[in-house]
Amino acid sequence: MFFLIIGRGVGFFENCDLKTNRFLKTLEGEVCVPPPMWLMRQAGRYLPEYQALRAKAGSFLDFCYTPPLAAEATLQPVRRFRFDAAIVFSDILVVPDALGQKLTFEETGGPKLDPILTPKDFGRLHAELDRRRLDPVLETIARAKAQLAADTALIGFCGAPWTVACYMVGGKSSPDQAAARLFAYREQAMLQRLIDLLVEASVDYLSWQIEAGVDAVQIFDTWAGVLPCSEFERWCLEPVKAIVAKLRLRHKAARIIAFPKGPERSLADFTARTKIDVLGLGTCVDLQWAAETISAGVVLQGNLDPLALAAGGAALERAVHGILQAVKGRRHIFNLGHGILPHTPLSHVARLVEMVRRDAD
Ligand code: CP3
After folding, report:
1. Alpha-helix runs per DSSP H in 327-360
2. Is 318 considered catalytic here?
3. How many CB atoms lie within 10 A of CB 80?
4. Residue 122 near residue 198 (C-beta atoms within 8 A)
5. CA of 105 relative to ligand 1 center, distance in Å
6. Which pTM was predicted?
7. Is 86:77 a contact under the CB 8 Å cutoff?
8. Which listed residue (46, 50, 65, 167) is catalytic?
9. Going by CA atoms, what residue is nearest to atom 43 of ligand 1?
10. Contact 257/280 with Cβ under 8 angstroms?
């Protein structure tokens, strides 16, 4: 084991060459050089082949619920860039959809839901997920898994209860989620009931994804950072902790990534309390701080600024170098600090892959 720790020994590299599943090796305890990499929103509009598929698909939701198309979208970025993991092509908002809340995506891409604001609105939701509505996602997983090489992992996901609740309450995208935050202050009891429902729904949904074949799951808490510390604990940390505990009762070995996108102050004890395997970090987090503060038993994931990738050139080189230096010697999954932007040039992504694979030393 010692030679694994001291640096780039032969065994160090050989254990993690490009033909092994470096994503899984990292989760199992090895420090891989180069680190495994994938990008949040890697299946998306920056890819011309995605745009072509999207044009055939009708509405975005139909796209998510058509397994041959969704499986193809899942595989496209892996085929082009040989990422170490694919993420199932779907959306976090299929959960409210399967709870019976009316959901559409506008032409511009933004979601529209009938907001849950009163006990009557809440009462219209199902008591649990309608599994039949989600069967196509599970079929997408089986199809994608069957086509992926053994060296590439498949990641399933759900939104964290707080982030999903932001859309369920607000009804649309928002720069600050003010509607959901007001609701959290004014309607604590109703929000708690909604969060509890989402905890149970998320456990079911992630369990089904694991049973359908995903190797790991990611819980996206994109809006964790809009809450003050005291509220973060209740609406973000506790629900994720509950999901992890309940999921592991059903799947003891479940590999769980959480992405509580927010500042350092909320993350120091997040991993110890939630017992996740991987901590996804947003762009605003200092990776050096994370490497020094977060237990080495936790894999760090992140956190290149998507705008540095869009910019390319010297800014990208500097940012990637900084990340690789900050996490040197510890388990790390290279990723962005948020989703890839639609206008990102393909050549920048190709250069990023080359840098991470070649310069990681
Ligand atoms: O490649 C992947 O990462 C897998 C697919 C994926 C999508 N959405 C596809 C998608 C994943 C993991 C998500 C997660 C998601 N969806 C989050 C959490 C992470 C994040 O990015 O913040 C959130 C908040 C949503 C909700 C959502 N879906 C919004 C707000 C929007 C509209 C704005 C936008 O970014 O486009 C979507 C639409 C959506 N989800 C698209 C894609 C590829 C674009 C729709 C299109 O192609 O027409």
Report:
1. 346-359
2. no
3. 16
4. no
5. 11
6. 0.94
7. yes
8. 167
9. 44
10. yes
